[in-house]
Amino acid sequence: MPQPEGPRPVRQTSANVEPDFRMLFGAAPGNCLVLTPDLTIVAVTDAYLRATRTQREDILGRPLFEVFPDNPADPDATGARNLRASLERVRRNRCPDAMPVQRYDLPRPAAEGGGYEDRYWSPVNTPVPDASGEVAWVIHQVTDVTDVVRHRTAEISPDQFATKQQQIIDGLRAANAALAQETDERRRVEEALRASEKRFRHMADHAPVMVWVTDPDGTCIYLSQAWYAFTGQTPETGLGFGWLDPIHPEDRASAEHVFREANARREAFRLEYRVRRADGAWRWVIDAAAPHFADDGTYLGYVGSVIDITARKEAEEALRQAKEDAEQANLARSKFLAAASHDLRQPMQSLLLFLDVLRPHVAAKGQQALQHLGHGLDVLRDLLNSLLDISRLDAGVVQPNVEDVALRRVLDEIAAAYAPIAAAKRLDLQVAPCRAVVRSDRTLLGRMLRNLVENALRYTPAGQISIECRKTGDRLRIEVSDTGIGIPPEHLDQIWEEFHQVGNPERDRNQGLGLGLAIVQRLSALLDHPVHVRSIKGQGSVFSVEVPLGQTQPRCAPAPVTEVKGNGRFAVLVDDDTIVLLGLKAMFETWGYEVLAAGSADQALAHLRVSGRRPSVVVADYRLRDGRSGVDAILRMREVCGTAVPSILLTGETGAEVQHHARAHNLGIIHKPVTSRQLATALNALL
After folding, report:
1. What does the radius of gyration of the chain's CA atoms come to, in whole angstroms?
2. How far is residue 34's CA from residue 427's CA, in Å, rounded to a whole number?
3. CATH architecture of 403-548
4. By CB neighbour count within 10 A (0-12 exposed, 13-18 middle, 19+ buried), where does 131 fall?
5. Strand-by-strand arrangement of the 531-536 sheet
C-alpha cells in the first residue's frame, strides 16, 4: 500500500528572495546618477557609464562637477552652470526640475585623441526625500539627444546612418559583454563571502569562548559549538531567542531587558548572569557584545562572546569572606586591647600611687631603694604604654581629633618637661619661638615630638638639642636636631622598627626600649604628617615632621602647676579595683582632701543621699562592673547634687568612645597608669 506523502518542502522562488536593489539600479536602462545633497556621486547606472565613457570606480565618491567639468577650451560653455542652477532649485523647492536640451561636452578618452567632443543632453533632476521631508538624494537622469540635434542641423546619408546603426549595435554588444563580466565578478565576490563566513564559523566553533551572532532585529542566527557543549542546547533550541532558556530565572528578565535596550540603541553592552550548564550546575558568565555595521553604515546585528567566570566569582566571594573575617578579627583585637589596656594598667596604677604615698614615710636610708623602685616602675609603665599604643595603632582603633593647634603651647610644655633632663646631662636644649597654628591632633602630635626629643636625649652625650619650625608652602616643618652619635647609613631604614636601637646590643634599659621611633612612624601615617631623617655618623641627626598649617589662633592656656592643696575639700572616688581605689584614697588624703572611696556608683550615691553632702570633685574609673561606666556614675551623682560637679574619668582606654563621652559631658580625662603629678595637673585644670 502506498504511504501517504508528507508535507512537501517549500520551493524557493524569486518571489521569496529579497532583490539586490543596488544590482538592479546598476542594470537599469536609463542614464542615471544618484547624488547626495552636496552633489557627490554615490551611484551610477551601467548605461550612464557607457554613455559618458567612464568607469564606476573612477567617479563614485567624487563631486559631480569635478568629474564632468565644462570644456575649458570653450569660453561660451554653460552646461555646468545651468545644471548647477537646476540642482539648486531641486534642493530648495524639493520638486523635480526638467531642463531644456543642454550642450555639455564630454572628455574624450586619450586612446581616441583626448580633448572634448560635442554632446547634447536632455536632463531631469528628481529629489528623493527622507522621513522628515528633507532632500536625502537627487536622481540625475539624462537622455543623449546628440544625434537628434545633429539631424536637425544637417542631412545624413544612408551610408552614414548604417554606420551609426552599426556603432550602436557594437555598443550594445560591448555593454552586454561588460554586464556579463560584472555578473561574473559579483559571483566571485559572493563565493569569497561564503568562504569568509565558513572560516568565521570554523574559528568560532573552535574558540575557547562561546560566540553568538544576531540579525538586526535581535534574533540569534548563530551559536558556536562551545555554547551547545556548555549548555546542552542544539541549534533547534538555542537559535532565535532560545538562548534565554538556560539563564537562571532570577537573571533572565534583566538580561533580556539589557540586550533589547542595547539593540534598540545599537550600543555595545556587557552583563553578568548565571547559566545552567549541561550537567545542571549553575555557572556565572560574562556576556559582552558590540554592534556590527556594513561599509555603508547598515546595521547588521551583534557579534558577542560568553565566558565562564565562575572561578573569578568564587575568588571574589572568598576575598569578601576573608575581608569580613579580617574585620571580625580586628573587632576582636580591639576588644582584647580594650580589656588588656584596662587589666594591665590597673595593677600598675596601684603601684605608682602607693609609691608616692610611701615616699614621705620612708626613712632617709630607704629613699634610694624607693627611688630605684620608682625608676623600675617608670620603665615598666613606659614599656606597657608603648606596647599597647603600638598594638592600638596597628589595630586602627586610634581615631585622631584634628583641630587647629597653637604649636607654641605644645613646644612650651616639651621645653618645660625636658629642660631639667637635658640640664642633668649637661646638654643645651633650645626651643625656637614658634607662633604657627597647625592642623593636627594636639595629643598625638605632642607624642611624636616628645618621642623625637627623648630619642635625641638618649643618643646625645654632649652638645645641644634644638627644636625649630620652618614654613614650606602650606605646611610647617618641625625639626628636632641633635649633636649626638648619628645614625650609620645601614641603620636609617631600620630605626623605625620595634626594639631596634643603634649602639645598644646589650639592651640597656637606661637607653630606652626601642619603641619610640616605631610609634612616631605609625603616628606619621595616621595623621598624614610625613617624617624624615638625615644623619651623619658621629655628627648628629635631624628628624623632621611636616604638619599642615591651620587657620585660626587658639588661646594658649597657662601652663599647669602640679602642687595640690585639698584644704579639706570633699572628693568622691569610684573604682571597682580595690587596690587602685585604696591607692587613690591614700593619695587624695595626702593632699588634704576628705575622701569617700566607693567600689560602685550605687555605694557612692547611697552615702551622698544619707549625708546630703555635695562633693567638690568626682574621680571615677571608666569601666565599672556589670557593664556600668564611670560616665553613668558621674551623671547620676550630678543629678543627686543638682549641679555639674567637676569630674575626671580615670581610664586605661584612649579610644574614640572615651573621648566622645568626655567632650559631651565636660569631663576631664586621664589615662592609666597615672602618676601623682599627672593626676595633680588634671585636678588643677578643673578646680
Report:
1. 49
2. 99
3. 2-Layer Sandwich (3.30)
4. exposed
5. 428-431, 464-472, 475-482, 540-548, 531-536
Q: How confident is the model at residue 187 (pLDDT cuts 50, 70, 90)?
A: low
* Cell, residue 597: 572611696
Strands 647-651 and 617-621: parallel
Q: How many residues does the chain have?
A: 687
Report d(CA 380, CA 367) in Å as an integer: 20
What whole-number distance in Å separates Cα of residue 375 and Cα of residue 367?
12
Instruction: Kindly state the DSSP code that residue 133 receives in the 8-state scheme.
Output: S
Domain boundaries, the chain: 15-154, 207-308, 327-396+561-687, 403-548
User: What span, in angstroms and rounded, lies between the C-alpha atoms of 324 and 346?
Assistant: 33
Overall CATH class of domain 15-154: alpha beta
- In this structure, whether the domain defined by 207-308 belongs to CATH 3.40.190.80 is answered with no
Q: What secondary structure letter does DSSP report for 623?
A: B
- Residue 482 CA to residue 456 CA, distance in Å, equals 6
Contact status, residue 453 vs residue 410, Cβ threshold 8 Å? no
Alpha-carbon distance values, 655 to 267, 395, 402 (Å): 53, 11, 14
Rounded percentage of the chain residues whose pLDDT exceeds 90:
22
pLDDT at 513: 43
C-alpha cell at 372: 630605684
Instruction: Report the distance separating Cα 625 and Cα 628, nearest Å.
Output: 6
Rounded to 5 degrees, φ, ψ at 306 are -125, 130
390, 522 contact by CB (below 8 A):
yes
Top CATH class of 327-396+561-687 equals: alpha beta
Q: Are the beta carbons of 97 and 124 closer than 8 angstroms? A: yes
**Measured distance CA(97)–CA(221) in Å, rounded:** 46
Per-residue pLDDT tens over the stretch 192-230: 556 655 665 555 555 567 888 899 999 998 888 889 989
Longest dimension (CA), the chain: 158
The three cell numbers of residue 256 are 533580556
Query: Per the omega criterion (within 30 degrees of 0), is the bond before 673 cis?
Result: yes
**Is 207-308 the same fold as 15-154?**
yes
CA distance 355 to 378: 11
CA distances in angstroms from 322 to 113, 213, 317, 391, 393, listed in the order given: 87, 40, 8, 21, 21
pLDDT exceeds 50 at position 126: yes
State the virtual CA torsion across 391, 393, 396, 397 in degrees, nearest 10: 80
C-alpha cell at 572: 568622691
Cβ neighbour number for residue 111 with a 10 Å cutoff: 6
Q: Note the pLDDT of residue 12.
A: 43
